[in-house]
Amino acid sequence: MYDSAPPTRPAAVALGVPFLAALWAGLIALPISGAIGSTWDSTAVFSALLWTAVWYAMLYRVWRGGPAALQVVSQLAVWIPGICLIGLAAMAITLGSRFDILGALPWWWWTVLFGYAGAFAVGILLRRSDVRAWSTALHPPESRAEAALRNVPVPAAPASGGSDEVAPAGPLAVDLGERLRSHARMRLGCFGLLLICFFPGLPLIVGIVTLIRDGDPQMALVCGGLLLVLALCLAVSTARFRRRLGPGSRISIDDPGITWDNSMGENTWFGWDQLSAVGISYHLAKAKGRTVMHMPQLELFDRYPDAYRPALTDRSRTEEPPQPHLPRTRFRLMLPPDATIHADLEAAVTSRRPRLWLGWYPRAGSDTPWFLR
């Protein structure tokens, strides 16, 4: 897992985990001691023991650098105390001078209040970059796309491909459009399923709230507007994805070069001598305190950027090149999230023109539909 000694545990973990463990023990001890005035039956005791085991198991995983447990605990330590502190502040603002915090709160409330403030601080500290780096060093990411980026060789300057670089290899043909549509249907289907599950319960909730508020339709209008916005976002995103993908996207790689077909009889062919470089770009984004990879995409760098290729106009991108000698313009083809296809494309290019292959390199923008991220 690591070559020499394990990385040093950050202070946020070394101090925060014992604090959260002690805080939970104190929260459990208060009702048991009768300070809150509650009586415990067998069900409450069983629930307390169950959640104590779950909480301490998560804290143990945080102590060992588990990335999933670190994310969950940091969120719980921020949101639960944060909501309580915000509620107390809202109560003080609402009541104004009538809110006597010294007289209104019993002694155990002060203990919980300071404990929650400390937990909130621990949750913030557990999101620090040094904590994430420590966790990543102990538990490297195991996703196929991120694993493919490990030990990636530094891209070499591509040279002009000559006939002596051609190696015998079978042709490769991949229907990228069908693979992408299949993946998009799966992702959009999951999102649609959530909406379908949400729709039946919403009218009931809206009706109850409307009756409680003496027939005021404001809540119904707000919820209806929210659903309308969600439906419009889904429709617009689907339409943009279909327009960008077009009727089809099929790529073929053989000894003469690379051919892209849009399923409308408009084929675009690149001879190996017409290409400056070929590579796969990716975008790393921060999401909920962790780094995620957005869609890897195949990029073709034309040796003649001003050449007229009308079928690929919508797939042309002008950005900073991964190597200084390359042109700023490239053609970017969406790839399905399939490590086998990525490896087949790399093998097909490197077996014929190895010096043209740039490998994997980062791109500045995501350029990925939100439901495929």
UniProtKB/TrEMBL annotation:
<protein>
    <submittedName>
        <fullName>Uncharacterized protein</fullName>
    </submittedName>
</protein>
<feature type="transmembrane region" description="Helical">
    <location>
        <begin position="218"/>
        <end position="241"/>
    </location>
</feature>
<feature type="transmembrane region" description="Helical">
    <location>
        <begin position="12"/>
        <end position="32"/>
    </location>
</feature>
<feature type="transmembrane region" description="Helical">
    <location>
        <begin position="107"/>
        <end position="126"/>
    </location>
</feature>
<keyword id="KW-0472">Membrane</keyword>
<feature type="transmembrane region" description="Helical">
    <location>
        <begin position="75"/>
        <end position="95"/>
    </location>
</feature>
<feature type="transmembrane region" description="Helical">
    <location>
        <begin position="44"/>
        <end position="63"/>
    </location>
</feature>
<keyword id="KW-1133">Transmembrane helix</keyword>
<keyword id="KW-0812">Transmembrane</keyword>
<feature type="transmembrane region" description="Helical">
    <location>
        <begin position="188"/>
        <end position="212"/>
    </location>
</feature>
